[in-house]
From TrEMBL, chain A:
<dbReference type="GO" id="GO:0005524">
    <property type="term" value="F:ATP binding"/>
</dbReference>
<dbReference type="InterPro" id="IPR027417">
    <property type="entry name" value="P-loop_NTPase"/>
</dbReference>
<feature type="domain" description="ABC transporter">
    <location>
        <begin position="2"/>
        <end position="234"/>
    </location>
</feature>
<keyword id="KW-0547">Nucleotide-binding</keyword>
<keyword id="KW-0813">Transport</keyword>
<dbReference type="GO" id="GO:0016887">
    <property type="term" value="F:ATP hydrolysis activity"/>
</dbReference>
<dbReference type="InterPro" id="IPR003439">
    <property type="entry name" value="ABC_transporter-like_ATP-bd"/>
</dbReference>
<dbReference type="InterPro" id="IPR003593">
    <property type="entry name" value="AAA+_ATPase"/>
</dbReference>
<dbReference type="InterPro" id="IPR051782">
    <property type="entry name" value="ABC_Transporter_VariousFunc"/>
</dbReference>
From TrEMBL, chain B:
<dbReference type="GO" id="GO:0003700">
    <property type="term" value="F:DNA-binding transcription factor activity"/>
</dbReference>
<dbReference type="InterPro" id="IPR036388">
    <property type="entry name" value="WH-like_DNA-bd_sf"/>
</dbReference>
<feature type="domain" description="HTH gntR-type">
    <location>
        <begin position="13"/>
        <end position="81"/>
    </location>
</feature>
<dbReference type="Pfam" id="PF00392">
    <property type="entry name" value="GntR"/>
</dbReference>
<keyword id="KW-0805">Transcription regulation</keyword>
<dbReference type="InterPro" id="IPR036390">
    <property type="entry name" value="WH_DNA-bd_sf"/>
</dbReference>
<keyword id="KW-0238">DNA-binding</keyword>
<dbReference type="GO" id="GO:0003677">
    <property type="term" value="F:DNA binding"/>
</dbReference>
<dbReference type="InterPro" id="IPR000524">
    <property type="entry name" value="Tscrpt_reg_HTH_GntR"/>
</dbReference>
Amino acid sequence: MMETAAVTLKGVEQYRAHFRLGPIDLNIDEGYVTAIVGPNGSGKSSTFRLLLDLAKPDAGQMSVLGYSVGQGDDREWKRQIGYLAEESDFLDDSIRGSEKAAFVRKWYPEWDVNLYQELLRKFEVDDAIKLGKMSKGMRRKFEMALVIAQKPKLLLLDEPSSGLDPIAWRAMIDILHRYMEPGDRTILMASHIIDEVRRLADFIVFMARGQILGKYEKDELFERWHVLYVPAANDSDRSKLLAMPGVIDAELAGIGMYRVVTEDAPQTEEALRAAQFGIGSRQAMQLDEILQVLMQRGVYA
Amino acid sequence: MWLPIHLNESSAEPMYHQIEVQLRALIVSGQLTEGTLLPSIREMAQMLGCSVITVRRVYQDLETEGLLRTRQGTGTFVASVQKEDLGRQRTASVIEAVEAAVDAGMRVQLTRQEMEQIMARVLDERWKES
């Protein structure tokens, strides 16, 4: 199948007095959910702002839905993007939800009023309330309903679940899966909620200190990044383990047992069998553990 | 639609393979009958907590085997399985499971004799039960 990119970044850089972003090279495939995972301050929100032409890069090119960012009339492509910013806009505090919706629908020809009403019901949001008077969670749910009712081809979600309680969170997961159902839509989200990424993402991009550390297919990531416990006797075994394909780290984890971190479990296991090592047990690594290993290893992608 | 498919994320078997084996077994055993509409790729991914890439691969593999068919715009259905195919498929899934068991034995370095003993013992136990 031909994959088309919904978003591409080529050599994108942005310099600030206290922060340098990039160079970033990244393709986001159409039809999939891609989650950018990284600690606070890694450049996720800055990247979103660049993609929306809300800030200018100092180098590089970007395209969104086939349009070059920063060139010509941006109304055409921005109509096809739903953007949920990390922070609510305080300038909206004094207007009611329904007034905000009436304003937004003018700009989005695909606006679906029935979907909007359905989402408000599902999220239990009353849009007659002034936005500044809504609780943080309710405002988040309102904003989510607003961007999805635009029926965008591309959804940019910056920490979508911040402020949501567990019930609203589950509703959000379900709504986002339903949004993806037509198959030609794309979600690019920034998140540090591990469970959210596990439930939603097809691809995971790791980011730290303004750099992309790697892009992985989610299931492959969890299939390959394992911790293996290997019975082994001494230091010469350790160097043997470290030399095996996929092995990132091997340290003594008790008497005669090495804890081996691998980014390619099938290959490492094969090498272990070939070298007559046994495998005591294996464990898939969690997202935060993988991020930590990638960050320790530094920038390589 | 809920399907009894269970994934073990610490298994050495890739996720698509685990799903494929179990879905195939559901079809071959007749638990999913001809014409049954399966969940969409996105629904299945949500249900199993895996990516759509994995589910698409499973659907495509089982389609190639003739167990599923996809109609554009309507979805993926369980295909009609021929009697002789059914027989072949039935043994194929068992052979695969036995192979996995043998692999597990080799991983902990059992001898061939030990494995034969285990196999005989399990067979004896299960047959007594049923």
